[in-house]
Amino acid sequence: MTDRSLEELEAENHALREQLRRCREYDSLTGLLSKDAFFEQGRALLSERQDTSYDLACVDVERFKLINHVYGSAAGDRLLRYTARELRKAFPPPAHLTARLGNDVFALLLPSRLREEAQQAVLRIFRDNPLGVMVTPAMGFCPVTDRTQPISALCDRASLALERTKGNYFQHAAVFDSGQMEQLLDEHTLLHDVEAALERREFEVYFQPKCNMLTEKVVGAEALARWRHPTRGLIPPSTFIPLFERNGFIKQLDLYIWEETARRLRRWIDMGHRPLPVSVNISRTDILTMDVCAALEEILRRYRLEPSLLELEITESTYVNQPEAVIRTVERLMRRKFTILMDDFGSGYSSLNMLNNVNVDILKLDMRFLEHNGQKSKDILESVVHMSKWLDLPLIAEGVEYQWQVDFLKELGCVYAQGFFFYRPMPAEDYEALLLDGRAVDFSDDGTLRIDQKMLLDFHDLFHKDVMSDRLLGNVLGAIALCSFDGRRLRLLRGTEAYYRLTGRSDAFENLPAGAQDLFSDVQEEDRPLLLDALERARQSQDERGAEVCLRQCRPGAARWLKLQFFHLARKNGEDIFYGALSDVTEQMEYLEHLQISEERFRVAMEATNILLFELDIATREARYSEYAQRTFSLDATVANAPEGFIEQDTVCPESQADFRWVYDAIYRGEPRASSIIHAKLKDGVLIWNRITLTAIKDRAGQTVKAVGIVETVSRSAEPSPEIQAELEQQAMRRKGGSLSPCTTVN
Fold it and tell me: Is there a single domain that holds both residue 542 and residue 640?
């Protein structure tokens, strides 16, 4: 071996050692310091710069898993690399250190005087991210007061500080203090024995009555949890509820409270007393971790209760954080006759918009609207009360504590309230005694809250600018207009800001001469008879549905489709007054037109090839198909329950019904594909042999949600060919448990 070859080996060895060192000291994705290297170099930096005060900061990307899920892991990696590059650029070594601790968490060691500058820099970095979406940081700072403490301990404390900011739209940074550690120790002590506390029945149900302010009598109650600790006494819910929500124990506690409430209701019924409805709380954790509807129905079954007796309160923040899951759960509960209350209404910034998408029966108004006896607070509350009446939603004011609040609410026509002014939360025995006192209870509403009919929004209020601001109306109801129709002209009386944005008009349109305000001129001429017909249908409508119509708005260059929902309000001075809600449906209408063209092309292709396609929805077990398929097999409609709906309509011959059912059962079981030869009957009684094939469509979780079906005519002969007979025999073996796969075919 030559001297040069030894030198090459040494150089290669050195390069490998250097590569190994870099792998150990630097994060492979971002190039920042690794966690271990950050801990080591952080200790050295603090030791070298004794004259400089330092902070250790942790930065977390909120909802990073959602970003990965929606945009893909490659986009998530790009965001992490960008964040790392910008952090290092803003805080370069050697005076600062930057690291990636793992996943989406970064760490900084920087002089304390730069704390505010660091917050602004991080906000800028996240705002200008390359994905072009809203990315929110959570930051925690831990001042370095003891340089002998491990860097890992400082990171832990900074991480605890940033947890306080998660989910807070207005605060993105927090500083660790010693009180946090004491709070954590206290929370740890409470959590240590919580399971045993539930078994020992230390948790009690308290009831806070809801009252009719006009009669000052009880019309219902809310069930609330209290913890009677053996050594600490009665622990307030503000101490343990947020803790249980964070660690997930709220699910067990809620189930316990639901059960105890139902047990009490059953007890009162068995005692011969007429109970009032009691509401229980449903948390976000409940909705995301269990089948709330099934759990509540099982409790009602065991205690033989009607759903109307157990009302359900869901906080507004739950709707904001998990809208789709909550809406699905609420719809299921409402279909099963549960009464749904939106709790803490008004506490979130999206309250009004939310009512467009969420179905609830009752609003519980957060009385923080009236924390101060000021005119602005009263104006806000007045608008909300008017809005609840307009939407025909009973309203309970919660947190009522003072006489002036009661007086003001009654002036507005708010009937129901809950708060310390009437009753504080009380033990079950005290509430039971209250129920037994007939003078304190009001059954006149029969357990159903109502709106004070005498205080309903007057028709003239619709034209009063002070009752509801345009902004409030726009947030609640979107694009709306009040119009008068004299039989010839449809004249605009008032529109919301959203209406003017949608139609492209300015609010000066209201002040034009009467002849120039005709809204018929806004509609394409061939659609004007449709508008006239909708107005007449709305005028004659005897229910609350009004009349709906889709029209094309006259616009330069291209038409816009608008959907209008008209409601007849009154007849005044020889004119009909209408309320109209508008929405832009151009995209939907153009899509429908495209579908119609596509369906016609598809029909022609199917007629030429003797192939039929259909779609199967797994959840409803409904098959949807074209009108051509409906005519071919003489079906009742273009949708049928599968498979039984087809069999009942006599489209499948008796000898093939077992094979026909098998195809669908295979897909419902989760098979990716299934196929069988079927003896089918056409509308004219002709018998043919079809091959039906179903292919599953799965969601991201791998669950089958839909299937695409193909029906292909393989023979029009009355008797099966040898090839078809062979396949029929294999199908029979498969149904009896043979080894053939679902998609085995014989050609």
Answer: no
